[in-house]
Amino acid sequence: MYSTRKHFLEQECDTAVLPVGAIEQHGSHLPVGTDAIIAEEIAKRLALRLNAYLLPCLCISSSIEHRESKGTVYLRADTLALVIRDIAESLRYSGFRRLIVFTGHGGNWILKPTIRQLNRDYEERGMSMETILIPSNIAAARQGEIVTHVQHDLHAGEKETSIMLHLCPDRVEAVVPQTRHASAPQDYMDYFDVIDITEDGYWGFPEEATADKGRRLLDLIENSAFAYLEGIEQERRRIMAGKSSGPVPRETDKLSTGGWDA
Ligand SMILES: [Zn+2]
Questions:
Q1: Which of 74, 153, 173, 257 could link 157 by a cystine bridge, Cβ 3.0 to 4.6 Å?
Q2: At residue 70, does pLDDT exceed 70?
Q3: Residue 104, class by beta-carbon neighbours within 10 Å (0-12 exposed, 13-18 middle, 19+ buried)?
Q4: Secondary structure (H, E, C), 156-185
Q5: What is the pLDDT of residue 183?
Q6: For 13-243, which CATH class?
Q7: DSSP class of 201
Q8: Ligand 1 centroid to residue 106 C-alpha, Å
Q9: Distance between CA 258 and CA 255 in Å, rounded?
Q10: If you ran DSSP here, which 8-state letter would residue 68 be given?
Q11: How far apart are CA 28 and CA 102, in angstroms?
């Protein structure tokens, strides 16, 4: 955001990192911008490690499942897909060759087919550009080492509240107790608004959150994301070299269900 034209002329940089957040209710204890705050933090870390261009956060995304709650603002899923296409295309046109999208919001399902299609479109047009999506649950396989609840901790629960307690404790309010924990399948968000499934808009166990868990979760997400990127590069080198060995194990190969879906 603060780079100048001169910076881009003088420094070799072909990778951009885009954080995608959300503006949606997160119960009574977390701010609506929670996903954006977390996405910005992870994207900043990745951009530093990759010496990449850190884009400002795309804060408004696909949050229609929270629309009954005042303060939630959302794009239709197909609008979000078009926005991502435009961002990738504008980066490619000015000389970037890789766009890494980190989404802090699990509801951005549309991002996956979008980048899959984009990569094929670029390939078919002979253009040297790739897009990579890192999902919010990239560390799902190992988060059980840190948190108590891996299952049914989908939104403003133990994981997100822990990270917010680490990043900005002054923004975390008291958790309003719920008389029951939502145990409906996550797919029910396709049919019902989250505030109708839950009592105070959170889906998980924020009462078990600590700042230390948040610090460790952020490090785990950062390292899992970096390992994912490295795995892609290794696989590309293997394919390019025409080797006959099997695929390189990647972090995502170990992804389990019940991840953090924010
Ligand atoms: Zn969230």
A1: 153
A2: yes
A3: buried
A4: CCHHHHHHHHHHCHHHCCCCCCCCCCCCCC
A5: 80
A6: alpha beta
A7: S
A8: 8
A9: 9
A10: T
A11: 26
pLDDT at 92 over 70: yes
Amino acid at residue number 26: H
Rounded Cα gap, residues 137 and 125, in angstroms: 32
How far apart are alpha carbons 172 and 13 in whole angstroms? 37
The residues, any chain, with a CB within 8 Å of residue 211's CB and separated by 6 or more, are 162, 165, 166, 169
**Mean of all residue pLDDT scores within the chain:** 92
Question: Is the pTM higher than 0.85?
Answer: yes
Q: What distance in angstroms lies between residue 35's CA and the mean position of ligand 1's atoms? A: 4
User: Which residue pairs, CB below 8 angstroms and at least 24 apart, start in 132-135?
Assistant: 132/98, 132/99, 132/100, 132/101, 132/229, 132/232, 133/101, 133/103, 134/42, 134/46, 134/100, 134/101, 134/102, 134/103, 134/225, 134/228, 134/229, 135/103, 135/106
CA of 104 to the centre of ligand 1 (A): 7
Task: Give the contacts of 40 (CB within 8 A, at least 6 positions apart).
Answer: 19, 21, 57, 104
Name residues whose C-beta falls within 8 Å of residue 114's C-beta, 6 or more positions apart in sequence: 80, 81, 84, 85
What is the pLDDT, as a whole number, of residue 247? 55
Average pLDDT, stretch 29-45? Answer: 98
31 compared with 262, residue with greater pLDDT: 31
